[in-house]
From TrEMBL:
Protein keywords: Amino-acid biosynthesis, Histidine biosynthesis, Hydrolase, Methionine biosynthesis, Multifunctional enzyme, NADP, One-carbon metabolism, Oxidoreductase, Purine biosynthesis
Originating organism: Flaviflexus equikiangi
Protein name, as recorded: Bifunctional protein FolD
NCBIfam families on file: PRK14193.1 (NF010789)
Gene that produces this protein: folD
Chain residues that bind NADP(+): 169-171, 237
């Protein structure tokens, strides 16, 4: 068996075309959505992701607002940037690019974001709504990578109802929040959330219908771990330098998994581009709610 490709790049392009149409309808009613970003420091990965987010904005007609701060910015300087975006009427929603430099209290920064402008769905109010509103529709923004995974699956006709899902990684942006999202009544999956303290990870993965690997550990998920026919989403990102000195991205899933899985998301080209598309989706939806 060779797995079919969960093509995030192509799916994100389709979503961006749909969003461009929604943005033009908003513009006809005098509303121009704006996305703000707060980037602290010069981490090459973060710089690339933020640049990509602003390129996407240009593509769909969303205004870009940037707050770029040096790596040694104080917490007070970061909070001042947050206050500027909270007060800026041109900014519909914004994100604080993570990770923040060591020593900065990430929770304190995320809590300062106006929950009504939280385009990442990572403010405690919005994560709290995701945790508490299990049976009712959610109108608050959802974290982008978890919703990217769900959207990528549903746009390939794949449903999680009754499925056993193994999630590897307990970070806030992916693992923790994907567990909350997938166990909602309207999704109805059963989730095993694994982490570095998990005993018997291979056996737990082998029992799963769907595997979401978000550990940031290159090639962690081996073909021998995966149930034949399972759906595998490779979310983890590691940057490695090969023997020629060239850098490249490596996911958490070993290439041989493609011989066992029924569907596999490539990395790059899978969940990453979808994460960016879902961020734009959050901003456009936030702007539409002002009508
Ligand atoms: N505030 C946030 N910070 C971070 C998040 C997040 O959702 N919110 N997630 C990740 C990084 N991330 C979004 O910010 C992100 C990661 C990857 C991609 C992407 O398009 N990747 C491409 C490859 C790009 C490359 O060549 O490096 C792909 O997978 O094809 C977009 C966004 C951590 N921080």
């Amino acid at each position: 068996m060779t797995a079919r490709v969960l093509d995030g790049k192509a799916t994100a392009a389709t979503i961006k075309a749909e969003l461009a149409h929604r943005v033009s309808e908003l513009a006809a009613r005098g509303i121009i959505p704006g996305l703000g970003t707060v980037l602290v420091g010069d981490d090459p990965g973060s710089q690339k992701y933020v640049a990509g987010k602003h390129r996407d904005c240009e593509e769909v007609g969303i205004v870009s607002i940037r707050e770029d701060l040096p790596g040694d910015a104080s917490e007070e300087e970061i909070l001042a940037a947050i206050r500027r975006l909270n007060d800026d009427d041109a900014c519909t929603g914004y994100i604080v690019q993570l990770p923040l430099p060591r020593g900065v209290d990430t929770n304190a920064i995320l809590e300062a974001v106006d929950p009504g402008k939280d385009a990442d769905g990572l403010h405690p109010t919005n994560l709290g709504r995701l945790a508490l509103r299990v049976n009712e529709p959610i109108t608050s923004p959802l974290p982008c990578t978890p919703s990217a995974v769900l959207e990528l699956l549903s746009r390939h006709g794949l449903d999680l109802n009754g499925k056993d899902v193994a999630v590897i990684g307990r970070g806030t942006t992916v693992g923790r929040s994907i567990g909350l999202l997938m166990t909602r009544r309207d999704i109805n999956a059963t989730v095993t959330l694994m982490h570095t303290g998990t005993v018997g990870m291979a056996e737990k993965v082998a029992a799963a219908d769907v595997v979401v690997a978000a550990a940031g550990s290159p090639g962690l998920v081996q073909a021998s771990w995966v149930k034949p026919g399972a759906i595998v989403l490779d979310v983890g990102v590691s940057r490695v330098v090969d023997s020629t000195g060239k850098g490249r991205i490596v996911g958490d899933v070993a290439p041989e998994v493609a011989e066992v899985a029924s569907w596999l998301s490539p990395n790059p080209g899978g969940v990453g581009p979808m994460t960016r598309a879902m961020l734009l989706e959050n901003v456009v939806t936030m702007a539409e709610r002002t009508l």
